[in-house]
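Model: You mentioned two targets. I'll fold them one after the other.
Researcher: Yes, keep them separate.
Model: Target one:
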Amino acid sequence: MIWRILVCMMAVLAWTAPTVQAQQGPLRIVIDEGVIEPLPFAVPAFVPENGESAQMGQQLAQLVAADLIGTGLFREVPASAYISGVSDFNAAIQYADWKAVNAQALVTGAVAVSGDQLTVKFRLYDVFSGAELGNGLQFAGTTAGWRRMGHKVADAVYSRITGESGYFDSRVVFVSETGGKADRQKRLAVMDYDGANVQYLTGSESIVLAPRFSKSGDRVLYTSYETGFPRIFVLDVGSVQRRVLESQEGTMSFAPRFHPNGQTVVYSLSQGANTDIYTLDINSGQSTRLTSAPSIETAPSYSPDGSQIVFESDRSGAPQLYVMSASGGEPTRISFGEGRYGTPVWSPRGDLVAFTKQSKGRFHIGVMRLDGSEERLLTASFLDEGPTWAPNGRVIMFTRETQGESGRSTLYSVDITGRNLRPVRTPEGGSDPSWGPLQN
């Protein structure tokens, strides 16, 4: 409820600098070509515009820096190297001083706190061309939403320099885990993309699995064992109200995902020894069977336009990845490498499929083109599984479990080049992440 209210209260205004004309400079990172040397940038503490905002100015600058550094594309110039600071948001930039410390990008900001109201302004400069990069922006909201404003500043900086949309002002739903492997308790939780602001959505009375955000981020599908059998539930994130979606007697339903239109759910249903893929119209409750094979068909995921489904099937003897029309029909196999493939997820950009691969005793998170070409394994460990895409299709989050009785499940992220592997800190163990959209 808290974060939904925040969305309603936050306002963002395009704000043109009074002394510098906005223009597009040459500063650019091309992600497709890979980035070996991170771009150096400086982000001095945001200028306090009243006595209450000094600490907030420091916190905002630190958050923006952490977001950018976490991409692996940027390197912060430490404050100890600064020749000149920024004490007046409207003062002319001393480009020579920032060039001397090799800061190629400069982020400046100002912050004002009045009671529980917060206003944040920022500008981005291309130091070596001596020009502002894009218009300044101003955000207004409550002090409780300061992290979101910092993430929005970082998203704008990232977008202007890379040409890609950002992903910092987003949420992730996941399974929070406590206890040993033999008596592990699981409950649904939602957090900021960086592990902050964790809120629990369910209790730990029954096992929950595989939460999946809707495209709009307002609902979550998941599987629960509270009835004794796996059943699909849908949960409203704002009200935390939930209801069962599928409960045919004598069956087990699991692995649900929303269609991009938010009105249809694709899932697996097991009856006897057979598992096939079905869809369910949320409004009418009408289900439709898409596959009819003696093999196990599971883990379906829609393409961004909703016209196709990628899924996992062992119809060839071992789990492999297949693509078929969203209305069913003969599927096409797309994975042919050595090992077992599973949990495919279509990129929001539509160009790649992320998957889990088990081969030679190791688990990997990988990506491939839709025709199965250009397979790349991004990680390797005792157990990596369950990839989910950032909203911009450039970063993947997944579960890593360590070996042994005391083994723990934690969340990691990695970019599509595989060169920026990072843990995502959560208060307890975590698994089954599902990345939501950018917030409004």
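Model: Target two:
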Amino acid sequence: MRSTRARTTVHTLVGLLFLALMLFPVYWMINASFQPGVATVDLDWFPVHPSLEGYRNAFSSQGPNLLTSLVVAIGAVLVSLSIATPAAYALSLYRVRGAGAVMFVLLLSQMIPGIVIANALYGAYNDLGILNTTVGLILADSALGIPFSILIIQAFMRALPMSLLEAARVDGAGRIRTFFSIVLPLSRNSVITAALFSFLFAWSDFLFALTLSSSSDARPVTLGIYLFIGGYVADWGSVMATATMASLPAAVLLVIAQKYIAAGATGGAVKA
């Protein structure tokens, strides 16, 4: 009994050590955000004299960029789900000719480097006149979110019992009503998981923003931080305050949706 307790204590301490190592960059970011006007080499280990000046600088200069990121991320989620959910429904629950090839192409698309997609989109966007626009960034980020969402939701829908769909047909429900009344509510976990990852893809995007947006009209916060470093490289407190503010939405969403993510990611692993 004593050896088991000692082994558990050692495992707990080792786990806490690894957790502390992984979270140290986050702590250093928050610590630096309360020490504006200080170079990185002069930062204290603790904010002995904390100041909100960095957050005031970050909010005044990066507030519009944060709003742009929020609009782009929410727009990418809406576009991704509006296309991915019906596509996954058709591919998983109905006999669609070439469904296997479509799924293979979707899986293959996840392996294409982002810079290839960004360069291809630049020429198309220039012809369409949507360079440096929020709409352009939403569509570009949706190009990543749609295939991933279809793969996640399709795997979950395949595990739904066919008897439910047959019962709906017997009751006179068409395919559209079955989708909205039965399939979509039952697939809630996978839809939330796909929505969350689509949001994170768009929220953390830097490559598309750097390639497709060169003006302040459609500048997300990731690009704003990059430019912020160039202008205020001596004031890392303001830079870290911006990074902290940019991390909050993603962290809050992950905490709120963690139980749905676990269920949505593994829901299709075992067919009912």
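Researcher: Noted. Anything on target two?
Model: The CA atoms of residues 65 and 221 lie 5 Å apart.
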